[in-house]
Each structure stands twice: as C-alpha cells, then as structure tokens.
C-alpha cells in the first residue's frame, strides 16, 4: 500500500484521515518519520498555514504528504478565532481555555452563526494541490457532549440539534468540514492512483 505522510501528531485528525483514505493509502503521522517538533504556523490564513506545514515535511523528507489547517469563524466576532483557533487563549493551545474565551466573548450576543473551515494542502511529486471544506452552524451557550475535540462541544451544525461532541463519530465524520476537504483529497488521490495503475 502506498504511504503518505499527514503533517500532524494529532491522533483525532489522524484517525479521521486513516478512515477516509484506508482503502488506498497507509497514512503516517509526523512521529512515524521522526519529526517530533511543532511546525511553526506563521501564516495569516488557513491556506498559508496548511502550505507551510506540508512544504516543511516535503522539503525535509521528500515524501508525498498533506497537511490541514482548520479554523472556526464566528460572524459576531468578525471571523475570529479563525486562523488562531488552536491558540485563541494563548500560545499553549489549551482547548478548554479557548472554549471559555469564545463563550465569554459571545455572552449576551444574539447572532451565534459560525462555520468551521478546513484547507488541505497536498504535495505530490513536488507539486501542491489544495482542497477546502466547510460546515455552517451556530455556537450554543454552554458545552454539550464528550466526543470530538476543540470547539466541538459548542458547535451545532445547521440542520442538526446535536453538537459535534454529541454526535456519533461516524455521523460527524460524514458531514464535517475536515471530512469534506478530506473526501476531495481522497477523490483526487484515487484518480492519481488509477492513472498510475
């Protein structure tokens, strides 16, 4: 099976990616190829950060790889936390503190509309390709559910009454922003595999 590197050590993300790409690719994490440091995310957009991470891996190893960057955009906060979602409450990247800061900023705010966005950067044979996915929804006033990660306990996708953290993983993975972007990636890679095969 063809190996491809996902520029992450996040086991939640890795599990989702392996599930979506399982039939054709063995997905390796950064630790599997000896990269254990955090890759600096110095871009000012999700797209820039995704590119930075994938080129970092490709330039160091020469291996085909992909990375993603995901952000939560809240309309009442002018699109924040956006590209800073993972470190919204500080550089340590504490998910609980990020959530608390978000809910505090939205206290008394009626408009709770928001969206999750993911940009995937794929580098294949030294050429970069990008894929995007998004899901609309709203931020509720208190946490619900124990699944998922990040802002999942306060995000209810449009058309549903459960938060991402309350949903079975199979359902979340079928409708999420990352799943949409990853399915585009998978479809592209399947086409590439067919061309080579």
Measure the end-to-end span: 12 Å
Helix fraction by DSSP (H/I, runs of at least 4): 25-40%
Largest sheet: 7 strands, mixed
Low-confidence stretches: none
Shape: globular
Structure classification: alpha/beta
From N to C, what is the helix and strand string? EHEHEEHEEEHH
Q: What distinguishing features does this structure have?
A:
197 residues, alpha/beta, 5 helices, 7 strands, 25% strand, globular
Question: What's the gist of this structure?
Answer:
By secondary structure, the protein is an alpha/beta fold.
Describe this structure in words.
The chain has 197 residues and is α/β, with parallel strands linked by helices. It is built from five helices and seven strands. Strand 1, helix 1 (11-21) and strand 2 form a beta-alpha-beta unit. Helix 1 packs across helix 5 (177-196) and helix 4 packs across helix 5 (177-196).
